[in-house]
Write a sequence for this structure.
């Protein structure tokens, strides 16, 4: 774990050193849990968003996009339940003065039981070798059975307390499990309190009687309140989806792990409207499609898993997370929820406007059911960065730091490098840049020795370096160096466009989703 912590620290400092992510307001000592994206970060982020947007809107004829405002009528948040129920249960440790989410402390405790069980299994597997029967071991080993029973009991108690919103019971669980504060190491806990995560502000001048408005904590409500507009103007027929990318704000109390949990972040959400009764079929379908989208990036199939929700939100009848293996464990990157007709019904009730769909095939009207897919851009960014970061030992004993980014997501697709700064090589290199730059983010670099320039491009994940040398002037060929293998091949300048395009185009990625 300590080693993984080290890796994570390195990733965070690499992100800053190479212009991916900066702490917000850094010259004023920063603003907690708020970050800015730098020159390379913004490109990577835009590419992630484009990949998602195109996968939704180009590959599905029945999905369209919108861009709704961040400010919305405050009653929307009453209808959605966010004013009354968008709360986290908080607990403070009196000695360290640190604040925690009670649910997270308990979930971490459950993960500890899981870890202990996994360790026992791994130990036994090593001891018994090929003869090891894991299923039998899990059902007969006394220590594993005891741990599993304690874990299950905790899980049941926790789910009950969360569903009943029983704050006293959550505190009692923390005491009974003897959970200590990771900072002070003590069990000196306060009561558990509820804390609303929405940011409030005022709209209009106070003289006229201003109105309290909220910064949206999710983009989804902007889709629900536009359901009728889009359905009517787009003549959409069920099933159909509406996609949106935009900022969301949550006053997260426990902000940690870099851009994993931020107070201002970005979401990519899609609400898919279906016939009542068909929602679970569509839920399964979207679970599969979304995982495929992640896996197409080639970051390793074993780095993903589903995590079905134990506590279903009051409006949901099925929910799962897609988790990604970050250096700090498997963590939620995306949520897929079957939200029933809760949101549309609530807006119908609070607005007094009829929100229904007339289904010509069934010859009947109903309030559509909804499957939601909701992914955080920043968490996706973090998963890409973590999986790409590598300190590679080279045969000559050197270490190179390289980002093995999926090529279509890389901020810079190719760098054109004249071997020396004379003899007409810079001019020739510029000529090549002027051809490629219309289709690919292309860098020109002439400073420092060629090896050093390669390393700089490796560090930002540039898939291709094109080196212009004296031979280029004679036969119009260049050296094409590939980032991951570091292999160099001699290719004709005229072939560059196709060679690069085949590897870096978003279309190549989207085709994998067919
Ligand atoms: P968590 O349990 O981690 O607080 P959540 O279940 O509340 O997350 P959702 O409301 O389902 O998250 O939001 C959908 C997605 O938005 C999440 O999967 C995550 O990728 C992203 N997200 C949510 N909160 C944050 C945050 N504070 N910072 C960055 N991304 C976030």
């Amino acid at each position: 774990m300590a080693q993984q912590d080290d890796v994570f620290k390195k990733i965070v400092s690499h992100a800053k050193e190479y212009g991916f992510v900066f702490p917000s307001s850094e010259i004023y000592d920063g603003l907690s849990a708020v970050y800015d994206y730098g020159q390379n970060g913004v490109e990577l982020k835009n590419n992630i968003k484009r990949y998602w947007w195109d996968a939704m809107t180009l590959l599905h004829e029945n999905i369209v996009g919108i861009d709704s405002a961040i400010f919305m009528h405050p009653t929307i948040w009453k209808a959605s339940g966010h004013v009354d129920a968008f709360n986290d249960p908080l607990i403070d440790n009196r000695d360290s003065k640190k604040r925690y989410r009670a649910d997270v402390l308990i979930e971490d405790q459950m993960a500890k039981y899981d870890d202990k069980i996994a360790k026992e299994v791994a130990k036994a597997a090593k001891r018994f070798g090929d003869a090891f029967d894991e299923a039998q071991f899990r059902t007969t080993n006394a220590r594993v059975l005891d741990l599993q029973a304690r874990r299950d009991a905790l899980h049941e108690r926790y789910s009950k307390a969360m569903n009943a919103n029983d704050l006293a019971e959550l505190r009692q669980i923390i005491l009974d499990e003897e959970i200590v504060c990771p900072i002070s190491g003590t069990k000196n806990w306060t009561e558990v309190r509820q804390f609303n995560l929405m940011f409030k502000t005022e709209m209009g001048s106070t003289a006229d009687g201003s109105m309290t408005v909220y910064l949206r904590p999710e983009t989804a409500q902007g889709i629900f309140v536009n359901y009728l507009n889009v359905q009517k103007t787009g003549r959409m027929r069920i099933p159909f989806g509406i996609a949106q990318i935009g900022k969301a704000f949550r006053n997260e109390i426990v902000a940690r792990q870099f851009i994993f949990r931020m107070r201002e972040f970005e979401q990519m959400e899609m609400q898919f409207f279906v016939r009542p009764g068909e929602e679970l079929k569509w839920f399964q379908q979207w679970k599969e499609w979304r995982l495929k989208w992640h896996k197409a990036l080639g970051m390793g199939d074993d780095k993903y898993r589903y995590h079905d929700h134990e506590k279903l939100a009051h409006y949901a009848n099925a929910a799962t997370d897609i988790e990604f293996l970050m250096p700090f464990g498997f963590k939620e990157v995306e949520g897929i929820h079957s939200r029933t007709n809760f949101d549309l019904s609530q807006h119908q009730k609070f607005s007094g406007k009829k929100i229904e769909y007339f289904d010509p095939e069934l010859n009947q009207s109903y309030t559509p059911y909804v499957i939601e897919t909701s992914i955080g851009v920043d968490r996706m960014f973090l998963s890409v960065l973590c999986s790409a970061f590598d300190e590679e030992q080279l045969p000559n004993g050197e270490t190179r730091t390289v980002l093995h980014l999926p090529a279509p997501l890389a901020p810079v697709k190719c760098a054109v490098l004249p071997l020396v700064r004379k003899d007409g090589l810079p001019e020739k290199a510029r000529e090549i840049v002027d051809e490629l730059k219309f289709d690919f983010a292309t860098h020109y670099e002439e400073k420092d020795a060629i090896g050093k320039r390669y390393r700089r491009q490796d560090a930002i994940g540039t898939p291709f370096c094109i080196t212009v040398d004296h031979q280029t002037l004679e036969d119009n060929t260049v050296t094409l160096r590939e980032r991951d293998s570091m292999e160099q091949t001699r290719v004709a300048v005229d072939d560059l466009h196709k060679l690069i395009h085949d590897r870096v185009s978003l279309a190549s990625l989207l085709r994998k989703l067919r």
Notes: The longest helix spans residues 102-128. Residues 218, 250, 252, 261-262, 265, 267, 332-335, 374-376, 378-379 surround adenosine-5'-triphosphate (CB under 6 Å). Residues 79 and 344 are 9 Å apart (CA to CA).
